[in-house]
């Protein structure tokens, strides 16, 4: 009886890479996967025209990658990518979905008369077994600032298990970007923090006056909580290009055919940015990503499609940009250079969230280097 229980417990847990603590699969499902089981969540992604157009064009402008081929769609969701692959000529598509959204995907496939081509499989990619290797793996795995959610781990697992040696990945490449920005959000967040502390101090006075208990010993931990929430947690935002005050720089480049999980556990970069605005505020840094559908060296795409989440004055994406706000802000001028040390790792208590250490220094036009400033952020 004990061995059976231990075996069941082992099945509920999956070891993470690089010797990190095991992740309870049931907890992970409750915290992460279950959100994708709702149609309203799928609708948000399906309504993102930039996202949809990029995948649609990458498939239908590169039909030679799909005609007569076997395809694996990792995290199929509604099943729309699998449907496009079949419509482009794939002979077989395995559409894998970890949540009950698989039921809806199966219905959608059948209603589009593609059930003879597409097989919807409910289960995690780490656990399922396919009857054959595939020519193409397609997946929309990108989270906020590319790597939040850590879904790319599952795509890498699928690649290593099921992709043929000469197979291709859709998307094939990815890049992470960072640039200095100006934003009124920094002032708003500081105001929110100060307001929460004013409210706390009023609460302390009332509690002592009415109930005779002095709770001021909790002021420091309360302040730390509020600082993390308002000042140290990066925020999602849809930036306008005019808010970018310096040249963007690449933090990391990824070849989806070759990268390992170990290589994405930590993103480290030393970059610089040249200020492009005259006498402006440096209020933080904005991060975004792009992915490309290039095929492979042996089997390149006929049409190289890019999906970018860079700041846009037209149609943005549901990913927006990840914004790391500075308190206090600094003043910079055109021609000055900002040097940034960036490090992003996974949170210890939730491998799908991230923590960031960011240090920056400014080289003024006179050549003087201002003291380095170090900040910590959380991507939640």
Textual characterization of the structure:
- The protein is an alpha+beta fold and 380 residues long.
- It has 2 domains: 2-172, Rossmann fold; 176-182 and 235-379, Hnrnp arginine n-methyltransferase1 (Distorted Sandwich), CATH 2.70.160.11.
- The chain has helices spanning 2-11, 25-31, 39-46, 49-60, 80-87, 101-111, 152-162, 185-211, 219-232; strands at residues 13-14, 23-24, 70-74, 92-97, 118-122, 134-138, 163-170, 173-181, 235-237, 249-255, 266-274, 280-295, 300-308, 321-332, 337-346, 354-363, 373-379.
- Strands 8, 9, 10, 12, 13 and 14 form a 6-stranded antiparallel β-sheet that branches. A 5-stranded parallel β-sheet has the order 5-4-3-6-7, with helices on both faces.
- Strand 3 (70-74), helix 5 and strand 4 form a beta-alpha-beta unit.
- It is globular and about 70 Å long.
- The two termini are 40 Å apart.
- The model is unreliable at 1-19 (pLDDT under 50).
Key phrases:
six-stranded antiparallel sheet, S-adenosyl-L-methionine, disordered N terminus, 9 helices, transferase, 33% strand, methyltransferase, protein-arginine omega-N asymmetric methyltransferase activity, alpha+beta, five-stranded parallel sheet, globular, Rossmann fold, Hnrnp arginine n-methyltransferase1, 380 residues, SAM-dependent_MTases_sf
Instruction: Tell me how many strands there are.
Output: 17
CATH fold topology of the largest domain? Rossmann fold
Tally of distinct domains: 2
Kindly report the name of the CATH homologous superfamily of the largest domain.
Answer: Vaccinia Virus protein VP39
Radius of gyration: 24 Å
Q: How far apart are the first and last residues' alpha carbons, in Å?
A: 40 Å
Largest sheet: 6 strands, antiparallel
Query: What's the multimeric state?
Result: single chain
Percent of residues in β-strands:
25-35%
Do you know the CATH architecture of the largest domain? Answer: 3-Layer(aba) Sandwich
**Based on helices, strands and strand pairing, what is the structural class?**
alpha+beta
Helix content: 25-40%
- CATH level 1 name of the largest domain: Alpha Beta
User: Which overall shape is indicated by the principal axes computed on the Cα atoms?
Assistant: globular
Low-confidence stretches: 1-19
Order of helices and strands: HEEHHHEHEHEEHEEHHEEEEEEEEE
Q: Average pLDDT, to the nearest integer? A: 91
Our count of helices gives 9
């Amino acid at each position: 009886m004990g061995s059976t229980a231990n075996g069941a417990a082992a099945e509920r847990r999956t070891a993470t890479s690089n010797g990190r603590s095991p992740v309870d699969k049931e907890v992970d499902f409750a915290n992460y996967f279950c959100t994708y089981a709702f149609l309203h969540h799928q609708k948000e992604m399906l309504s993102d025209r930039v996202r949809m157009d990029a995948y649609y064009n990458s498939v239908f402008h590169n039909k030679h990658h799909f005609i007569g081929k076997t395809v694996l769609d990792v995290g199929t969701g509604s099943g729309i990518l699998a449907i496009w692959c079949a419509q482009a000529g794939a002979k077989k598509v395995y559409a894998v979905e970890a949540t009950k959204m698989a039921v809806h995907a199966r219905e959608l496939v059948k209603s589009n008369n593609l059930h003879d081509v597409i097989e919807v499989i409910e289960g995690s990619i780490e656990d399922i077994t396919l009857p054959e290797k595939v020519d193409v793996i397609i997946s929309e795995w990108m989270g906020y600032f590319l790597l939040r959610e850590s879904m790319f781990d599952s795509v890498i697992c699928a690649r290593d298990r099921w992709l043929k040696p000469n197979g291709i990945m859709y998307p094939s490449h990815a890049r992470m970007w960072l640039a200095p920005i100006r934003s009124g959000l920094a002032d708003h967040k500081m105001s929110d923090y100060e307001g929460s502390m004013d409210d706390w101090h009023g609460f302390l006075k009332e509690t002592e006056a009415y109930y005779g208990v002095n709770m001021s010993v909790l002021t420091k931990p309360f302040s730390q909580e509020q600082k993390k929430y308002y000042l140290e947690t990066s925020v999602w935002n849809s930036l306008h290009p005019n808010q970018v005050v310096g040249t963007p720089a690449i933090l990391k480049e990824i070849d989806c055919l070759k990268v390992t999980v170990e290589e994405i556990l930590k993103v480290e970069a030393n970059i610089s940015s040249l200020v492009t605005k005259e006498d402006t505020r440096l209020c933080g840094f904005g991060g975004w990503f792009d992915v490309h559908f290039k095929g492979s060296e042996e089997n390149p795409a006929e049409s190289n499609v890019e999906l970018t989440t860079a700041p846009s004055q037209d149609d943005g994406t549901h990913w927006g940009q990840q914004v790391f706000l500075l308190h206090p802000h600094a003043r910079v001028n055109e021609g000055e250079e900002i040097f940034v040390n960036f490090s992003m790792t996974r949170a210890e208590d939730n491998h799908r969230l991230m923590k960031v250490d960011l240090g920056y220094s400014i080289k003024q036009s006179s050549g003087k280097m201002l003291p380095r400033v170090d900040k910590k952020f959380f991507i939640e």
